[in-house]
Specification:
The chain is α/β, with parallel strands linked by helices. The protein has a domain at 15-160 and 258-331: Alpha-Beta Barrel (TIM Barrel), CATH 3.20.20. 31% of the residues lie in helices and 17% in strands. It has 11 helices and 12 strands. The protein has a 12-stranded mixed beta sheet. The longest helix is centred in the N-terminal third of the chain and has 14 residues, at 78-91. It is globular, with a radius of gyration of 19 Å. The model has no long low-confidence stretch (mean pLDDT 89). The structure holds S-adenosylmethionine (SAM) and iron/sulfur cluster. S-adenosylmethionine binds at residues 24, 30-31, 68-69, 71, 100-102, 124, 162, 164, 191, 193-194, 196, 328-329, 332-333.
């Protein structure tokens, strides 16, 4: 058994997020511009290469794998990658295989995912209103996502809804979303919008709705109990005593969660980002394609040795600080 991956701040890296494509069938306004330029397909790691890198991480102690994108379910033949990863669930080396999706294609894949050992899925949904859904996703259709959620639940997958808190957009739907999730026995995680990708600082500040404010609103109607529970992700959880449901808050801006960070992110081109909020990354592709390059294990260990202490996002001075230039769809959410 190889030594575990430990970063310079003594954090063990046990969680890998893999962005399998930068493409998407939506164009959410806070994530992408409408006329995004995507990477040429030849730059993408093949599914076999993604398998090699993911498996190398698992042999170095990664226990949790989340597949993301772009929209992971639009990558051609993606089920063969899930099938490859499911062998690590069977061997017991991996505790969890999961994905984050916009839900548009889920009705086609929910049964296969469940059969391959996926137990939970995060589905992103910012509004329950058709017209607003069109406005925020530009290209998406709410009915498809609702169909995907139905399919996931019928297949026995536990669903968590991820909602980005957007000022003047879904402020008025906070209670509707909470109640809808409670009725359908789904968890809900609320996310603060992060300054990623070039959408203009003005847009970001307009969109930003601090979760401290949102939490205050919930407290007017519900009794909130803070939970100790951590799932290896950045969310902090509360229980709403009246409904028993769990609500997560991802607050990179109002609460810095970096001290317990256990994760790294692989892009579809083989770059490894050891921090979502910093520009630096290491390229693992040479280790896959060039015979004279360092081995994958050496390249991964060297990259983990550069993991920064944390991000520098900050809106507190009424301007956007710490912005990173790449879009969230590049590194995966
Ligand atoms: N396409 C999939 C989806 O939407 O779930 C997976 C990739 S998407 C980049 C992952 C998550 O990142 C989504 O929940 C999305 O809402 C969130 N996201 C995208 N851009 C963001 C930003 N600038 N700030 C905060 N969350 C963002
Ligand atoms: Fe696509 Fe997800 Fe980004 Fe929306 S948030 S554009 S669904 S990658």
């Amino acid at each position: 058994m190889s030594a575990p991956l430990i970063d310079p701040f003594q954090r063990a890296v046990t969680y890998l997020r893999v962005s399998v494509t930068d493409r998407c069938d939506f164009r959410c306004t806070y994530c992408m511009s409408e006329n995004m330029t995507f990477l040429p397909k030849r730059d993408l790691l093949t599914l076999e290469e993604l398998d090699s890198v993911s498996s190398a991480f698992i042999s170095l102690g990664v226990r949790k794998l989340r597949i993301t994108g772009g929209e992971p379910l639009v990558r051609r033949n993606i089920m063969s990658y899930f099938r490859a990863m499911s062998r690590h669930l069977e061997s017991g080396e991996l505790d969890e295989l999961t994905l984050t999706t916009n839900g548009s294609q889920l009705h086609r894949f929910a049964d296969d995912l469940a059969a391959l050992g996926v137990r939970r899925v995060n589905i992103s949904l910012d509004t329950l209103d058709d017209e607003k859904f069109n406005r925020i996703t530009r290209w998406g259709r709410l009915a498809n996502v609702l169909r995907g959620i139905d399919a996931a639940q019928s297949a026995g997958l536990r669903v968590k809804i991820n909602t980005v808190a957007l000022r003047s957009f879904n402020e008025d739907e906070l209670f509707a979303l909470v109640e809808w999730c409670a009725d359908r026995d789904m968890d809900l995680t609320l996310i603060e919008v992060m300054p990623m990708g070039d959408l203009g600082a003005e847009d970001r500040l307009d969109q930003y709705w601090p979760l401290s404010d949102l939490r205050g609103r919930l407290q007017e109607f519900y009794t909130l109990t803070d939970l100790d529970e951590r799932t290896g992700g950045p969310a902090r959880y509360v229980r709403l005593e009246e409904t028993g449901q769990k609500i997560g808050f991802i607050t990179p801006l109002t609460h810095n969660f970096c001290e317990s960070c256990n994760r790294v992110r692989l892009t579809c081109t083989g770059e490894l980002y050891t921090c979502l909020g910093q520009e630096g990354c290491s390229d693992l592709r040479p280790s896959l394609r060039e015979p004279m390059a360092p081995s994958l294990e050496e390249a991964i260990r060297a990259a983990i040795g550069l993991k920064p202490k944390g991000h520098d996002f900050d809106y507190s001075r009424q301007s956007v600080a710490g912005q990173v230039s790449r879009h969230m769809s590049h590194t995966g959410g």
